[in-house]
Amino acid sequence: MTIQTVGVLGCGLMGSGIAQVSAAAGYQTIVREVDDSLLEKGLGRLKKSLEDSVAKGRATAEVRDKTLANLSGTTKLEALADCDLILEAIVENLEAKQRTYAALEAIARNHTIFASNTSSLCITELAAATKRPDRFAGLHFFNPVPRMKLVEVIRALTTTDETYQMVFGFAASLDKEPITAPDRPGFIVNRLLVPYLLDAVRAYENGLGTLEDIDKGMTLGCGYPMGPFTLLDFVGLDTTYFIANIMFEEFREPAYAPPPLLKRMVLAGRLGRKSGHGFYKY
Ligand code: NAD
User: Fold this and answer.
1) Three-state SS string across the chain, please?
2) Protein residue whose Cα sits closest to atom 8 of ligand 1
3) Does the annotation count 93 as an active-site position?
4) At the fourth CATH level, which superfamily is domain 191-275?
5) Domain boundaries along the sequence of the chain
6) Between 208 and which of 59, 89, 183, 203 could a Cys-Cys bridge form, CB atoms 3.0 to 4.6 Å apart?
């Protein structure tokens, strides 16, 4: 089997980026949203991203046109019936994902591989909810998808070697650098990043320094592109809190326990850039 047609579920922040890189790599790509206005919004984001790439010299007008020619949008799940690979990038909610996979099972072909872009849910649990746990894997992209080179490829306990090699090869064909990550909360990157971010919040609560000085310390002293509080505001404090709780549930280690300040900021609606107020104001 070769992958020729790719379905993407969800045209939000990640789905629109995944659809873009898939179409740019030459795959016939169909992206599905729940209604027309969300589809229009998502495709608008995708087109703007393509235009920005052309304006900044990262892509040619030819690549833009080829990408758009390979791409189509739909609100109908049945439109994904003939896809060889279906990548799910809908909301981070186990029940919503399980419901979607059940609906997909009714229309997808037997050989079709399902992959999830989940950041924190268990790939084996998602796979077990389908009738094809052997043809299921995790493909974890990074935001913004067209710019970030990494893809973590995760095998469920049930994923076959053939499926794994297929999705790993697919990720590489998108001009990405795939790495093999375990089906454990946080995979590789968040497993290391989240405790660092939580530690920064704890250290700040304990008076280590000002937000600005801690951020400056890590950018200028370590060469990180942004300090921990700028990054937390960028990722979203609610998202970080959600992932930390899942990691703590699994590992029961203090390093993953969300600090009291983080919880209170989320409760107060200070979610970072998206709410206009996090550790900094926007
Ligand atoms: P988002 O809220 O921007 O987009 C999700 C989209 O899915 C929404 O537009 C929603 O309308 C749509 N949707 C919901 N149910 C659907 C369905 N049944 N069919 C089709 N579309 C449906 O969220 P996002 O940030 O793009 O995250 C999507 C997934 O990617 C989540 O699992 C998240 O954990 C993961 N992820 C996010 C990031 C990130 O930085 N935001 C990074 C890596 C992975």
Assistant:
1) CCCCEEEEECCCHHHHHHHHHHHHCCCEEEEECCCHHHHHHHHHHHHHHHHHHHHCCCCCHHHHHHHHHCEEEECCHHHHCCCCEEEECCCCCHHHHHHHHHHHHCCCCCCCEEEECCCCCCHHHHHHCCCCHHHEEEEEECCCCCCCCEEEEEECCCCCHHHHHHHHHHHHHCCCEEEEECCCCCCCHHHHHHHHHHHHHHHHHCCCCCHHHHHHHHHHHHCCCCCHHHHHHHHCHHHHHHHHHHHHHHHCCHHHCCCHHHHHHHHCCCCEHHHCECCCEC
2) 12
3) no
4) N-(1-d-carboxylethyl)-l-norvaline Dehydrogenase; domain 2 (1.10.1040.10)
5) 5-181, 191-275
6) 203
- What is the crossing angle of helices 228-235 and 211-222, to 10°? 100
Per-residue pLDDT of the chain (282 residues; tens, 9 = 90+): 799 999 999 999 999 999 999 999 999 999 999 999 999 999 999 999 999 999 999 999 999 999 999 999 999 999 999 999 999 999 999 999 999 999 999 999 999 999 999 999 999 999 999 999 999 999 999 999 999 999 999 999 999 999 999 999 999 999 999 999 999 999 999 999 999 999 999 999 999 999 999 999 999 999 999 999 999 999 999 999 999 999 999 999 999 999 999 999 999 999 999 999 999 999
CATH topology of domain 5-181: Rossmann fold (3.40.50)
- 277 included as an active-site residue: no
Per the confidence metrics, is the pTM higher than 0.70?
A: yes
Whether 230 contacts 282, CB under 8 Å: no
